[in-house]
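re the bet — no i am not wrong, look at it urself. input seq straight from the record:
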Amino acid sequence: MHDLHAPLLMYGYPLREAQWVRLVMIHAGVFLRRQYRHFIGQRTRGGDDQRLITRLLGQQHAVTLQYHQRERLYHVRSRALYAAIGHAHARHRRALPPLTMAHRLIALDLLLTEPRPYIERTQDLVQVFLDRFAVPRVALPQQTYVSSTAPDRRTIQYFPARYLTAIEGEVVSFVVPDLRPRTALAFDHFLAAYGALIRALPSVELVYVTPRGETPTRARQRYQQVLEGGGGTDRGEVELMDHCFTVRRAIEQRTDALLAPAIVQQYRQHDATFRGEPYASWYRAWVTGGRPALIELALQHPSRPSRVRFRHVATSWAYYCQGRATQFAHRCPSTRPGGDPDVSA
């Protein structure tokens, strides 16, 4: 353990502070004083948390942001500090929109009350899914960047939107915080990015975190439609399947050069999802009967056995997201001893 925190010890942080600062840099980038007090088992504000803040600000390792009323939020942004722990290019050190900061605070609170072996590095995520779970590379969440000076030069970034991810046995758990469960937009964004990966895994747990008192009705509906099967194949999945089949057919007929690069890129991201049965026979039916045949097959297809567990955690702290142009004051989740999660399969 000391080896992991040795670089921070060299900056003068005691071991307990070094453990906390490293945890924050890897999984959130931002934190509140009360979260550090929870980490060290300190109930009220006192000398321990003040010494950490003084050390962070005094060495210019963090900046202070207004949070709510007199409370402050701390963002660890020092490039040198991230480089010292081997995360020089971590996205957590960049300036964040208010909503993103709130989501990371929520994730950090869940991490504090549900300590699990969350994967730290993006490259480790990529390797474990490729090697251990044999997930096709095209099924990984990814974004392609084209050079402005050399259009032929492209860079693929895997997991551009990171969620807390833990692997225990054959079960992969993703933590999805959502300040606005009534619309479940954050959950929809997660499904759009991670849907192909989830379908390629043997067993998945989705930990959906919302403000206390909120119900996950919208998110549960989306989960049932997209991942459980919900009595038939989801319409959005049919549309995506039709798109992939169209591009696949163009490639077979060597007419894919006429397609826009963005269309081909979307195909590469999702095509692996629609390989094997029953999709091979569906593709043959689509070739002869077109989209109507695909829709008819999808409606007849029985629900897939669920390999995905949906777990709702409603927590108790209030969060506030404040920006210059827009101010948010949503009550959103945190976790503290005594909070009772609503767990449902």
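see?? Residues 323-345 have pLDDT under 50 and may be disordered. told u. also The radius of gyration is 23 Å. so pay up
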